[in-house]
Amino acid sequence: MSVVVQNIERADQSVIDRLAACGVATVHEAQGRKGLLASYIRPIFPGARLAASAVTISAPPGDNWMLHVAIEQLKAGDILLLAPTSPCEDGYFGDLLATSAQARGCKGLIIDAGVRDVADLTEMKFPVWSKAIFAQGTVKETLGSVNVPVVCAGAYVRPGDVIVADDDGVCVVLREEAEVVAKKAEARVAAEDGKRKRLAAGELGLDIYDMRGRLAEKGLKYI
Amino acid sequence: MSVVVQNIERADQSVIDRLAACGVATVHEAQGRKGLLASYIRPIFPGARLAASAVTISAPPGDNWMLHVAIEQLKAGDILLLAPTSPCEDGYFGDLLATSAQARGCKGLIIDAGVRDVADLTEMKFPVWSKAIFAQGTVKETLGSVNVPVVCAGAYVRPGDVIVADDDGVCVVLREEAEVVAKKAEARVAAEDGKRKRLAAGELGLDIYDMRGRLAEKGLKYI
Amino acid sequence: MSVVVQNIERADQSVIDRLAACGVATVHEAQGRKGLLASYIRPIFPGARLAASAVTISAPPGDNWMLHVAIEQLKAGDILLLAPTSPCEDGYFGDLLATSAQARGCKGLIIDAGVRDVADLTEMKFPVWSKAIFAQGTVKETLGSVNVPVVCAGAYVRPGDVIVADDDGVCVVLREEAEVVAKKAEARVAAEDGKRKRLAAGELGLDIYDMRGRLAEKGLKYI
Amino acid sequence: MSVVVQNIERADQSVIDRLAACGVATVHEAQGRKGLLASYIRPIFPGARLAASAVTISAPPGDNWMLHVAIEQLKAGDILLLAPTSPCEDGYFGDLLATSAQARGCKGLIIDAGVRDVADLTEMKFPVWSKAIFAQGTVKETLGSVNVPVVCAGAYVRPGDVIVADDDGVCVVLREEAEVVAKKAEARVAAEDGKRKRLAAGELGLDIYDMRGRLAEKGLKYI
Amino acid sequence: MSVVVQNIERADQSVIDRLAACGVATVHEAQGRKGLLASYIRPIFPGARLAASAVTISAPPGDNWMLHVAIEQLKAGDILLLAPTSPCEDGYFGDLLATSAQARGCKGLIIDAGVRDVADLTEMKFPVWSKAIFAQGTVKETLGSVNVPVVCAGAYVRPGDVIVADDDGVCVVLREEAEVVAKKAEARVAAEDGKRKRLAAGELGLDIYDMRGRLAEKGLKYI
Amino acid sequence: MSVVVQNIERADQSVIDRLAACGVATVHEAQGRKGLLASYIRPIFPGARLAASAVTISAPPGDNWMLHVAIEQLKAGDILLLAPTSPCEDGYFGDLLATSAQARGCKGLIIDAGVRDVADLTEMKFPVWSKAIFAQGTVKETLGSVNVPVVCAGAYVRPGDVIVADDDGVCVVLREEAEVVAKKAEARVAAEDGKRKRLAAGELGLDIYDMRGRLAEKGLKYI
Question: What is the ipTM of this complex?
Fold first, then answer.
């Protein structure tokens, strides 16, 4: 039952970079409001923004053995994503694992559990989005799997899917939809630029989006 | 049932400014320890401190239509305050709405739900106190109301009441009590200044507040 | 039932300083993965790191009277640690108490409840690890105890035990084990330095820790 | 600041009884989907269903003194409703207070905090809707108020407002709207009876409510 | 984006019945400890136990329109399973919808949100496993989808997968694995019967499972 | 570090039985309002009420091996009490372990984690107070300890301390204080009987406890 899938497909790096440029909120809207991880997944420091291919990990509660296995599977530009098999907030990951992952070109970690050594990780500029910051140690006794589909913080993630993460949280984009989503996201960014200028000039959304008629029709009363 | 109240009364700007200067903890104490919003309402960035008149919004879960309606009702110096009609952490508000609100002189947002684009909002210095940071999009399908009384994060807020907010959280002051509260709060600030000096010099609260007798009477034993 | 224990034993300052240098995660591992406070105890600002002897407080919900009593018991280099007798997130502690504590040489506060005036505390560089930031005021009506054993955020703490705290959270070390734990923690730090260099050079934990055989034995399959 | 309001207005008993017969979900719908207390307020035993006039209590955390004061204000058919001034789950109420309240004709208790002696209360058939079951004792040291408006579990409640409670939770109806709401609620009950029969016979809501056209218009695709 | 998939495959009824007989804990173990929904999904009354094919619903927060659409897709013996697109505890489902679903042969509901009219549902013996009991009403304004894969309370569920539910919670079995899992689960039940007798007779698990040697090897000390 | 302490002292059975007769709320009051476990520890079925000597277990998250070890240490009349070393809600315990424990005379289980097979446990009348009901399986890979002091749901418990549990929750009594506490608890029960009669007859607590003077003194106003 415990497997390591060694060859996974990834989206094109250029597409991944375009998704990073658009950010989580826009990408999430562009793909039909799906793929968000739960809001309890928060960055350990502000300002990080990235997109990367997921190397996924399914791990038992309180056991970080599979992280060592997963690091060998990383290609430069990947991100680690760990989902425990039952709810856990232990500190699976700290500065030593981050050093190892960073040496392999890993761009960060998404973990539906805890992380520790956050002062060091901040200094290393190794971004982590986690459920908790917790120093609680883990063991290396029970197997899990690497590069299998997982549910992480409420989102279904397959190995090689694109993870977009910034201060707003984390979103997953299906690898095969990445290019279409990037295009739609960029279109949203462009459209928003025009609206932003009009709004900044004091025009109202009520007028820009022509909402007054529909509001009246639904029965809104001004008193 | 869905209404927009267009003319609301506000407290004097000078009184609002005096409340801002005193801060949340002091204002809360000065008005008899009432009016605090729940502690889960947190600022999206540290250091903001303000007081403003509330333009209130009652909105359905996952529907941010009324924010567009509310922005038209803003006067310079107001703050938006949104309470969903059932618990929700969707991202009702982002950088476009903030641009629009800021253009109308809005000083910030209090929301018992989620907010997104927080990196942009931080850069814009548009302060938000929210329940969650969550990129989850919303729709514009169902009406709510603007400038009606709401319960927001456990506090009863009427349109035009004064909102005081800083790193400690958010407090609401009844519009008609604002002046009295400001006076009491300023008195507390003045009194605290004297005590701070004595405490900094090493005097004990036990002595400054003359507590030893009452502690002994209640039965405290030193061993 | 309400007592203040005036003379408590403390660990050697030099040992305390060595524990501070090692940090929470390492100290926790070195003492057999015990002593961590729950992960909901978080610092009010990042970057603080310290170790200190605990002056413990057992206080009723919403009543901060015993903090005044406890401050008199502080020796320079101590830390206050407050556990409410039932769950509470009221703001027991603010800038006046911090001024008083700091004047007595207190290094910080651990509190399984709320704190307020956090902007001031941050400016004063007075570190607090708390369950909540909440301006809610407290009263001074009911006694508690000072320097008695308490359970604080899930950890059993006796007066004089050593508290280690940093961005990862808070850990307690038994006073009588402090020296042994410091030695073990320093050994871990030394050992980690070597591993960090090898990992940074691209060596894998799988090889450094010789895990491949045991993984195969447990049944891990590469596909 | 601490007051006991002795004479409060109540709705007509016949109206109150009609609301009880309709139940929480129907009453809530009938008054425009407002007035619900948060879902964490749960009955201590299943099967109770009632409506009653609220005698409200604002009490400090961990202090149940005001319950004794409030019991004197009860008229037969009233219900006690307690909101703590900051979040608390202590056991404010047990079998002795229930005996006293029941002797005065009190029909139950709504409490945004804890309750204890639940085996006894169940045997006494004294219904309680609470946030927690917790044996934690309280003190009698600090005043609160009786028969003042409070926010209880997210709902604004004034003394004399009608409380409707059953296995679905708790809803508050403004005293002055009670009759109109009862009428609307009864109309809903009548209308639902007809629909229930058609649905039980296998007719679809899609047809009874004529939804197919609007679904198609919005873009629903059957595949 | 909003679709209703009309023809879904289901597992054999006989296999579904065998899974029901084994129960959640055993089925979950038999399939390698996967497929459990989060523990916050609880039955509204004790004693129900079933297995059924899932008709899945992805619905917006606070909008139960798709339930009406889904009921038309039910075959006798199916179960409804609803996942909101963002966290919500509104009461999507009550006695009228239950009457309609039951008339179509529906065996129950799994919902990662709220339910209401629970006294009626209990009387109707219509079992529901939900996140909350909450009377909060919903609207019918925004589309979702029926019979698409969803993540429900942390588990990935596809239409036609087998849902097993009892007092322990809810587990999903992949349709194509249902037969193999049923066989393994039945083997576990048989094996457990033998062990149960030996344990009831006072034999120890330490001996039945031959654990003493391995415990000693790992270093367990009896003192 | 992993030990099994084989000989522990227990309180007299007659004292334990007297504590059971008094119940959790009374015992907790009698010993000065200490020793309660957190309110999230709830019985899996209503109506159980017992007192017993604790056989304590410190176990890793998701690993129930030590339960097998602990069962051998049980004497008739004991209760198992398990605290995980980090927060966990996995189902450590089900009907097989209950059969084994019951065969050794065990009276129940207190667990700051999850339990499963609750329908069976209910039928067996084996009472459990737990944090969660969750079918999630556990492994047997990592050692813990038996009969060492633990912190369980916020309470410090030593092996042989007396556990009192009923529908109100769970309370621990120090073994060496058990007799004194039993005496005080019985005195409370006796005193309450008299008060219950007076309250049932309509006398007010305000008069029975002579509160009116002190309320007036503190400033309570009747209006």
Answer: 0.96
